[in-house]
Amino acid sequence: MRIDKMLSNTGFGSRKEVKKLLKDGAVQVNNMTIKDPGHHVDEKGDTVLVHGEEISYREFIYLMMNKPPGVISATEDHHDQTVIDLLELEDSIYEPFPVGRLDKDTEGLLLITNDGQLAHRLLSPKKHVPKTYFAVIEGEVTEEDIIAFQQGVILDDGYKTKPGDLKIIKAGLTSDIELTITEGKFHQVKRMFQAVEKRVIYLKRLSMGPLKLDETLELGEYRELTDEEIELLMKQDK
Is residue 100 within 8 Å of 168, Cβ to Cβ? Predict the structure, then answer.
């Protein structure tokens, strides 16, 4: 990789700013001062110093966020705050993006990464990656609803969903449920309950494939995935 690209990707500014760093003699590769922005480095094997400080390069970043309500799952928006706006600069420089989307008013697990291949495979309809949600429903959820979800319900556009695994935690005037689905249609959970004449009044995603929400994360907080979590995602993907 070119040294200017590596430094730019690692947060040392634009290519122009990186060129100035190089010109000023601030960059060393394997104890040799490098001024040529086109100099190629082995980002895994070479030792790169900027102002005497060693730089570690990572190609991919994997973040778990507990998405708060009122924030949209996008990289940029002219009107609303996005999940990327919540990231620290040291993470946003990797230009990550949310994997899939959660509705603006929905909370919970959101994977954010710049690994496009992993994201594509996790979102592929062919993979049937399960996603589990906790929801509060206006109205009493019944055994009939469980059976209907198992069989697949007809959405407002005529689409019949794949089977959903509905569990009733508490039933009453409002009901607490968990629902696992393997699709990601627009507003799917809300529309599935609309199909059985009920309304979602609170929705939170608990898991996506093998990745489970870290309940110690406050709304709007995020952390890097552990090596074990990344490994589980890679296995899920195969």
Answer: no
- How many of the other CB atoms lie within 10 Å of CB of 61? 19
Residues with catalytic annotation? 103
pLDDT digits (tens, 9 = 90+) for 81-124: 999 999 998 888 888 999 998 999 999 999 999 999 999 989 88
Q: Provide the token pair at 65.
A: 């966020």
Report the chain's C-alpha Rg in angstroms. 22
Q: Which tokens hold the place of 91? A: 């993470």
Q: How far is CA 196 from CA 129, 178, 192, 193, in A?
A: 24, 16, 7, 5
Look at the block and give the residue holding tokens 């100035």.
20
pLDDT in tens, 53-85: 888 778 899 999 999 999 999 999 889 999 999
Q: What is the DSSP letter of 82?
A: B
Q: Any idea how long the chain is?
A: 238
Phi, psi of 15, deg, nearest 5: -55, -40
SS3 227: helix
CA distance between the termini of the chain: 28
Cβ atoms within 10 Å, residue 62: 22
